[in-house]
């Protein structure tokens, strides 16, 4: 693997270091066996990305079935049971099998590359993370062959206790939480150790790429939140099968205990989903605005502040349960506080774009979709954090609209920005730009047509998790609009799938650094060789690739200036 890679990457300008002799190197396996046994972070990353995207498609099909049912008033397309199963599977899939683990997929592929490491700290543990995730998904989806769970992704007690949810589907849900939780926990420890110990020389905390910062905070939040939900679902399991009564009021237990344990995990889970999305945005914006990120330290620090505050707000999901006013006020105020570090981020992102030399490439456009939609989700979040407002809209479509603006409009648009940005690095090929822009346009229009009007549906009083509604007022019209939007959104997503499938084999060759990126993953080939880097450069700033390009240019000045008239502007950019 040694020095033949050197000539194709900008490493050529740097002094070679002595080769290391490796002992006990395993022979390269081929084909399927290689994928099943791999411990390479890049292959595991690809396994994560592909698997989670398949779950995204499943969750998306479930969403479309829900929307079909709601397309007309008093529809009889689905039975109430099937409807409950669908929204439970949809929510559970999107959260536990798509957004959280796809961030681990990006993290797996890119954290080692961005910090100049040759793999994760514990490669085998890394493989275990992936296989635990897949087992969790399979165990959960196996329930469609008997009875899927019906108690919602929150599985509130007593609904999820044996008396009301006798089917094994609820147990499949419990095992899903156990297995994916274990997967994330093991993965989180791995990320933490990797980031703490394996950074390139010179990469102090102040030079850590912002995406890596968010994966670090993601990992810490997972380590803090997951044990709580793991304990809670274990108590639920023993309540269901071994005669305990932790959540059963008839045995002196408390159903509200479940809600506290669930949301102590559940709210941080929201930040677990969205922080790495913030990280992607913070990487993509400066590259396509051709300007350094505005306020690196503030953007990095605000992630930490958000994570800390995120641990203090869980009971804003429980404003309608009996609580003393002082408790309501505490959780309202702590929720308000999160707007400050979030506002800092949004301000800094906008300031990064301000007077930039903007290149309207697909990754950037998805970022702009993210910015506008996440802002709306954030604002409605502040609204529902006001507890008297929440008393009015709790469990209505207003809340459904709010959290889809955060998760779909925010996290998923950031994920798509990441797909378009990093696809060339992973596959060595470019995605098609016009198709990417069409995909964005349909997703942006479809998303807003689906969910903007759900705020109104909610304020008109339509509760969430109901399989039918009466034909009163404009309810049917609004729901029809929402359903049409969902299919436009689905079409937009389909275009990206087609784009990916086409470009994997046929896309134009990307080369090591098609975007003139700032971070180290662009230093190596696309796709990177097994060992990532033959030599790891010394890091001198938060944008090591700019330093390297400058260095290369300085050393070959006359030749380069003649070859590329734009070189100078790139350097200044
Ligand atoms: C592909 C576009 C999507 C559409 C059309 C869609 C549609 C819906 C609908 C109509 C419901 C309400 C069901 C009900 O309350 O009766 C719902 C619930 C939900 N959705 Fe989505 N959704 C989409 C994407 C997502 C994403 C990306 C996430 C998370 C990352 C997500 C998370 C949830 C959750 C957690 C629930 C609540 C489930 C429950 O009540 O237990 N959705 N979705
Ligand atoms: Cu919350």
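Q: What amino acid sequence fits the structure above?
A:
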């Amino acid at each position: 693997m040694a020095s033949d890679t050197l000539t194709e990457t900008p490493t050529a300008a740097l002094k070679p270091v002595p080769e290391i002799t490796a002992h006990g190197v395993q022979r390269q396996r081929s084909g399927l066996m290689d994928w099943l046994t791999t411990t390479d972070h890049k292959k595991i990353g690809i396994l994560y990305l592909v698997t989670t995207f398949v779950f995204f498609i499943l969750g998306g099909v479930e969403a479309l079935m829900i929307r079909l049912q709601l397309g007309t008033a008093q529809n009889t397309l689905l039975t109430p049971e099937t409807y409950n199963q669908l929204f439970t599977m949809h929510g559970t899939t999107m959260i536990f099998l798509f957004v959280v683990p796809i961030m681990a997929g990006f993290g797996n592929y890119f954290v080692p590359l961005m910090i100049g490491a040759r793999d994760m700290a514990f490669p085998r543990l890394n493989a275990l993370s992936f296989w635990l995730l897949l087992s969790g998904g399979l165990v959960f989806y196996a329930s469609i062959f008997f009875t899927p769970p019906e108690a919602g992704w929150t599985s509130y007690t007593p609904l999820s206790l044996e008396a009301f949810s006798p089917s094994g589907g609820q147990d499949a849900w419990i095992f899903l939480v156990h297995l994916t939780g274990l997967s994330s926990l093991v993965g989180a420890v791995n990320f933490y150790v990797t980031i703490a110990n394996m950074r390139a020389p010179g990469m102090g905390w102040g030079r850590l790429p912002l995406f890596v910062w968010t994966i670090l905070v993601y990992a810490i939040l997972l380590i803090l939140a997951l044990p709580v939900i793991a304990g809670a679902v274990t108590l639920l399991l023993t309540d269901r099968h071994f005669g305990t009564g932790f959540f059963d009021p008839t045995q002196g237990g408390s159903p509200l205990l479940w809600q506290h344990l669930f949301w102590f995990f559940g709210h941080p889970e929201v930040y677990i989903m969205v922080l790495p999305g913030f990280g992607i945005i913070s990487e993509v914006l400066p590259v396509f605005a051709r300007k350094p990120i505005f306020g690196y330290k503030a953007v990095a620090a605000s992630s930490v502040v958000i994570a800390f505050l995120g641990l203090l707000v869980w009971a804003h999901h429980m404003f309608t349960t009996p609580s003393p006013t002082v408790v309501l006020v505490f959780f309202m105020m702590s929720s308000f506080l999160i707007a400050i570090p979030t506002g800092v981020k949004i301000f800094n992102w906008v300031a990064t774009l301000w007077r930039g030399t903007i290149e309207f490439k697909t990754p950037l456009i998805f970022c702009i979709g993210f910015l506008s939609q996440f802002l709306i989700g954030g604002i409605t979040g502040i609204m529902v954090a006001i507890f008297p407002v929440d008393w009015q809209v709790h469990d209505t479509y207003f809340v459904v609209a709010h959290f889809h603006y955060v998760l779909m409009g925010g996290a998923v648009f950031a994920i798509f920005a990441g797909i378009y940005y990093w696809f060339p690095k992973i596959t060595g090929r470019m995605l098609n730009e016009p198709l990417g822009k069409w995909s964005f346009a349909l997703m942006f229009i479809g998303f807003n047509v689906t969910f903007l009007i759900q705020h109104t549906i909610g304020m008109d009083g339509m509760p969430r998790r109901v399989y039918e509604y009466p034909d009163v007022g404009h309810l049917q019209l609004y729901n029809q609009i929402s359903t049409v939007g969902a299919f436009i959104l689905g079409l937009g997503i389909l275009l990206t799938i087609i784009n990916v499938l086409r470009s994997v084999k046929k896309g134009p060759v990307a080369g090591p650094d098609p975007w003139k990126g700032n971070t180290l993953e662009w230093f190596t080939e696309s796709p990177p060789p097994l060992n990532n880097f033959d030599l790891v450069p010394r890091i001198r700033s938060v944008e090591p690739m700019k330093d390297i390009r400058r260095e290369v240019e300085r050393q070959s000045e006359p030749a380069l200036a003649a070859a590329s008239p734009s070189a100078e502007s790139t350097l200044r950019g």
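Q: And what stands out in the fold?
A: Residues 267, 270, 313, 316-317 surround copper (II) ion (ligand 2) (CB under 6 Å).
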